[in-house]
Amino acid sequence: MAATLFDSTIYRDLILDREFGALFTDSAEVRAMMIVEGALAKAQGTVGVIPEIAAKAIHRASLELQIDPAGLSPETGKNAVVVPALVSSFRTLMQAPEYAQYVHFGATSQDIMDTALALRLRQMLTLTETRLKRVVAGLAALAEEHAETPMAGRTYGQVATPTSFGAMAASWGNPLADLLEQLPAIRSQVLRVSLAGAAGTLSAMGDKGDEVRAELAKGLGLSDPEHSWHAERNGFAAMAAWMTQVITQLAKMGDDLTLLTQSGIGEVRLPAAGGSSTMPQKQNPVMPSMLSALARVAVGLNATLQYAPVHRQQRDGAAWISEWMTLPQLCLATGRALQIGGDLAEGLKPDTESMLGHIDDGTGLIYAEALSFELAKSMPRPDAQAAVKDMCKRVIAGEGTLKELAKAEWTDLNADAIFAPSSQLGLAPQDARTFAARAKALA
């Protein structure tokens, strides 16, 4: 088995999303760093830090030259960062030393790598937004269509009171809609240039450093933080926490679906299921299980990334490298979870007959709370609760259904209205439709 399943050729169709995966490869990293080096030279040429003719040559070369990532390995193994090897190869391949001497002028490795990461995170967050909207829209469609489709609500794994499948879809979707609304703030914290030089002072560029940084930000379409953030990693910690919440909220849906599809329940049908190597009858809830598995891994990755702000002094190699080892995997987990979540949201089908069957198993006990509140209209609430609780014990003992015993005890009781799922849904239909309307506004 590969060290990480994201890199496995065996498990890639299970765990890897190809679009997200393409953003976190050696080739993608090298290409992004080349773009940053070219944009930096162009910005420096514009404000007069380096000769404009050299800037144009470097910028053109950054778009044309091809650097093999494997060739950067030996030097990176010594330096811990890839930029020295990249710059060396860049200068050699330019075959114009009079211009190449200005490549990477006044910058430091972290400037290039962090800015290149921001370029890839911009694409990643765009994909994330698109997919998150797809999940929310899919759940909204379910909520609207099944706002009044009754099903048993369960607490502690036990049947409680009736709810609707639409309300359950809304309970999956509302937290995701919250996270969608938070996405602009996450973008603002990570989609920014880094240009601060060796120790955060940008002294090598004299009095034009801030102009270069602003021009670089403009050229790359990123924001200008107007200060050094080498050791300020709160943005990545915030993004990691946000992605983890996305995955764990999807896992909540996944765990619920695993329970709803289990033998003896069967209240929903999945768009796809997995088989067993030995049991022909099995229809395993692979997609929901993947959401749960990804969440467990994401929480661990996030724990490491929450330590990222502990970045010693002006720059810290250990803290920085720990980000490289965890952030890409968390991004890939987010992409795969959202893909699965979208497929489930668009492909789920409730089994309404099974849902109705589990609301009332013939005993009517799910209506015990409703009965107690109806009785409380004509007697003290504690007395009503005690009476219904005693009657539930009689039902469990086999003396009859709750409806039968109630009608016999209270002959003027409107039992048909109490013992009907449609009359006991409470705010469930409203909650489902409110979420559906909210989701349309976010589309």
TrEMBL record:
Lineage, highest ranks first: Bacteria, Pseudomonadati, Pseudomonadota, Alphaproteobacteria, Rhodobacterales
UniProt keyword annotations, A-Z: Lyase
A Pfam family of this chain: Lyase_1
Top-rank taxon, per record: Bacteria
Organism per entry: Marivivens donghaensis
GO molecular function annotations of the record: lyase activity
Protein name (database record): Adenylosuccinate lyase family protein
Record-annotated Adenylosuccinate lyase C-terminal domain positions: 363-436
Gene3D superfamilies: Fumarase/aspartase (C-terminal domain) (1.10.40.30), Fumarase/aspartase (Central domain) (1.20.200.10)
SMART domains: ADSL_C (SM00998)
